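Hi! If you just cloned this repository, the fastest way to understand the data is to look at a raw example. We've pasted two of them here, unedited. The first protein comes first, obviously.
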Amino acid sequence: MSDDGQRILSPATMRFCPLCATTLTRAPVAPDQREQSVCPACKFVFYLNPKVVAGTIPEQNGRVLLTRRSIHPGHGLWTFPGGFVDFGESVTDAAVRETLEETGLTVEVTGLLNVYSYPGSPVIIVYRARVTGGTLTPCAENDRVEWVRLEDIPWETLAFPSTRDALREWVAARGVMPRG
């Protein structure tokens, strides 16, 4: 369980082989002998790799689009549109899809802002984007979507380290020193 009571996927919660349903054991695996979850029956090694999140920082008239989360993690805090990349989906397609799902807006990716990686977290890939259509609308995952000026970014109530780091870079690219 995480600090907010959510169940999380971790090496300790992996119990059964996804191929044959045998109970997994922990064992060192070549070549580096790092301990992994291994199936004693079929020898499948369950490598638990970080998931990938794709997000956009939609820009319009010097403002950035932020969403306030209505779900955990980060309930009540602000971030930019984003979410998990689905199997078989490109990262850029996921970023565009998540933006549409979370804001009602279609966007065009205009460039890579950066890639963010923190221990125990997904890998977060953030793109700059411009709006090409749609109607600004919140979704089940957020209760507010707002265009925010640089000087009004709510630094004290940002949801994740990646949110803070990406917005700092976005602001700095405009020649302004971020407050947060």
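Ok, and the second one:
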Amino acid sequence: MPPSIDSLELPPFRPRFPWWGADLQTIAILLNTKTASLAPHTSERVCFPMADRTGDILLGMLDQPAEPVGGKPLVVLLHGLTGDEDSPYVLKAARHLLDRGYTTLRLNVRGAGPSRPYCREIYHVGRTADFRRVLTQLPDELTRDGIVAVGYSLGGAMLLKYLGEEGSFSPLRAAASICAPIDLVGTCKHMMTRRNWLYHRYMLRAIKAEATGPGAQLSDAERDIVRGARTVWEYDDRFISPRYGFMGAQDYYELCAPRHFMPEIRVPTLVLAAHDDPWIPIDHYREFAWSDNQWLLPLMPARGGHVGFHGDATHQSWSDVALEKFLERIVMLEA
């Protein structure tokens, strides 16, 4: 079972100047420049061939701490929609964990970031078999102290779905999702509202570039559909859904929504979401029956934006501090 919220001894989250308000918290991540190095820690490229006859290969970056600490699990970090191994929130989390002796694997999901040129196909929320395949390829020397997975936004949704599918058979020691969309229909409709038109435009442009990037194997008709999509819903309805066996966006979103799989999770899982997240309606979290599954630890501060959590107590992300304390308690409880 996961530790209690009180046992984490987390300081309350208070936004740091100038990142006041949900939108500034969110935009801070989008505007953040990428860190080129995690020195003095070391990094090396790792590859994970997929076993589905596509020839696709997922790439990741394995980061080793300069001062390893025994007994700490490998932490696999999964980025969000249109993100990759160098997304600022992924790099910040890796740096935070490496400084505390954890080994991290920053995984690029299928067709994302450095994986793009080596993949004919592209990821979607339902593609949990890819993550399953990656776990089976991790060498024993990396996993002798267990594996923890952390997913951000869409990566968190994929992770929650995977955990529910696996139930008690998951090899993970623990997991965490940060600002994951657990109701895909509601989240997509919310992103298409006038309030979020700028975010929606930004994401739509990015997913089009990603879907048609080097390595992607699309027919001329599919390329026309992707380029002509006017909304994320239309992109998923006319491109992702028919390509991957769904009857449309509604069918895809309903079948893959994490909220349907979360009741079956049997791994200690931290589920972090902010009440003021402009992308993910907090009502989706409020409506979930948390008391029915004691393996889930919901943490829902009033503020933080979408994968923001730039707090005044420290220049480290408050979500990284929460993750650190959660993992410390997991290691302590299982020692």
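That's it. A detail worth noticing about the second one: The chain has a mean pLDDT of 93.
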